[in-house]
């Protein structure tokens, strides 16, 4: 079974890019590791934001678009990717608004928990 624990974020980003490219054939794709914005140890690769522009989204509701992305990354979402923020646009939507929304600051309960690194380490053992 593939796992991204202990890998560098560039490896996880490359995997996400590969899977989304193979599945959705995007005309534009951005993958950002936003783990540093959350209460996780330095170098983590657990929180990502993706912008996917694909003609396969034509005529689909936002929830159906997100389901396609989630299905493509099913294995990663069940193992190493804790959070995935998705912007799924059609090429027409991208042409009219070629921007990536900003992520809000982390409000997670672990933000003030100074033992989070030990808990994450224990979870990997």
From TrEMBL:
Bias-annotated ranges (Basic and acidic residues): 111-125
InterPro entries: BolA, BolA-like_sf, BolA/IbaG_stress_morph_reg
Domain of life, source organism: Eukaryota
PANTHER family, per the entry: BOLA TRANSCRIPTION REGULATOR, BOLA-LIKE PROTEIN 1
Family designation: Belongs to the BolA/IbaG family.
Subunit architecture: Interacts with GLRX5.
Protein name (database record): BolA-like protein 1
